[in-house]
User: Fold this.
Amino acid sequence: MILAVLAIARYLFLHLNLSDLMTAVGDGFLTFARVAILIVVASLIWVPIGVWIGLRPAWSRRVQALVQFLAAFPANVIFPFAVMGIVAWRLNPNIWLSPLIILGTQWYILFNVVAGASALPNDLKEAAGIFHLRAWQRWRDFILPGIMPYYVTGALTASGGSWNASVVAESVSWGHTTEVAKGLGSFIAEATAAGNIPKVALGATVMSIFVIALNRSLWRPLFNYAEKNFRLT
Amino acid sequence: MTLTLEKTEQALAPLVEVKDLKHVYGGGKGGPGLVVLEDVNLTLKADEIVGLLGRSGSGKSTLLRSIAGLITPTAGTVSVSDVPGDDAAHGVAMVFQSFALFPWLTVQKNVEVGLEAQGVPADIRRKRTLAAIDLIGLDGFENAYPKELSGGMRQRVGLARALVVQPSVLLMDEPFSALDVLTAETLRTDLLDLWSEGRMPIRSILLVTHNIEEAVLMCDRILVFSSNPGRVIAEIKVDLPQPRKRLDPAFRALVDDIYARMTAKPKAPAREGHFPGTGLGMALTHISTNTLNGMIETLSGGPYNGSADLADLARELQMEADELLPIAETLQLMRFAELAGRTLRLTAPGKRYDSFDVDQRKQMFAQHLLAYVPLAAHIRRVLDDRASHQAPASRFRDELEDFMSEAYAEETMDSIISWGRYGEIFAYHEDDDRFSLDDPA
Assistant:
């Protein structure tokens, strides 16, 4: 492992200069911002919907199948429509290409939340009902803690997947038109198109470091916290 | 003069009134559904503890949930009213068998939940919560989480949470049956003390239980439920003075009397015995084949020689009498024994079964299972018909859910899987939840 890292580092050192590294890291932060914002937006949309579905068993069964289909569907085949839209309305690709990175991965949030909400125990639902918990109190004291371990799993998976999706989502072509959003994904995509192997290796390495660092510093502690405090048994 | 009249009226005004209640599970498409409650009438007045006593499947929990407003009954009316005049007690609150505490909230927060929902200001909320915690003997545990507490302490939290909202009626759903014997007895005594001293801010208690002694120990009035469907078969007033002693002959006589009423055969001689539902819709209780074999052997051996009083059996096996009933009824369903009143008697096939060796027993068990348990025959028929000789278990589970609740369907499936395996009439594969006719040999 260490040898491999050293080998890559030596290779990159020989073929690239410092400014390439700075660009890759800076682009990494842009992509990070994009992923973070979109995970938040997708959560705001899918957590309430997922809970609504999960609390209705008849719906959950039907929706789970649909969501699994959507998760398996290759999202990049609809990317060109975004390009057409951006060209037609002269939109800023830095903003309007962003939603594409979560197009295929948002479903992990949805189906984990559905699973979490349908696993909420019946006796707690009855307790919440008989003591007439108010809307906000019901979310804060019952639903959100109850689905937390599931939600974290979904958000973690969606975040990891979105980083990878950025490679195809931040630089999208349709015919002769190519729209680019500045970020680590487009950095890798352009290096790949140009056949610049050292830059591809640099981009991939930086991305891996970002993803691992996020897992270590954010997702794993969050997951452990949720498992410890919000376990139902 | 008018004053006395008002007072009597106040005491007589019902807190809860249930009229012609009926509840049907499932139904809808296909199946007729399982009638869990029928023709139920109930009046609950101030200053009484009323017990709803019945076996599992008698719909008593469904009745409690209808009163709590958690279930909308299929037909009939439920009305809950407060004692007229100046009385802080209001509405209903419930204590659950499983405690139903929020695991991520501390004891204090769990107790406070209902008050916050009512919009009680924070300082008053805190004061009332601490008072309830104190009343129920939980002081010192305010900041503990439920998982740090024993079952008994958890149920105290459940009780404090219900009392703090000052309900007019306290609904209790098998509140002591998840606790060990000693803890349960302590909690019962504490509750009765608080009640008789009038220290709880409530007007009456409705207690669901399957434990006859518990009902006689605590209640002023007991409604005995039949199963299949749930109906009130008797209303018994308990006049024994509190505190009641289990060894008091009058107490024993009353327990025995209720016991006899509960085991009495229904007038229509339904051969399925007490099992709720008939045909495919029969809800089965999961009794292991070891237990069934053990019971047959005990019955056939001395001193019983094939026939025993259930109460004697219970004493010898150190079981609660009502734990014994499902075993006896399963034997009756399979025609290995007959239940008449309180006497369990081996049938001729039951005696023959007892004399057999393991392989012969399995064979005979298989025959009886296919002949008398419609679900077993149904699964076997489907497997025989299919070229692949296999079928997903979910198919049968779905069919059952047309007749009964999910939980009963689950237990019925567990029973049929374990009995089917013992009789080797089919195989079940847990990994992919599937039945087959494979012979592992």
Q: What stands out?
A: The domain at 289-436 of chain B is CATH 3.90.241.10 (FokI Restriction Endonuclease; Chain A, domain 1). DSSP finds 16 helices and 15 strands in chain B. Chain B touches chain A at residues 65, 68-70, 92-94, 96, 98-105, 109, 113-114, 116-119, 161, 165 (CB under 8 Å). Chain B has a mean pLDDT of 84.
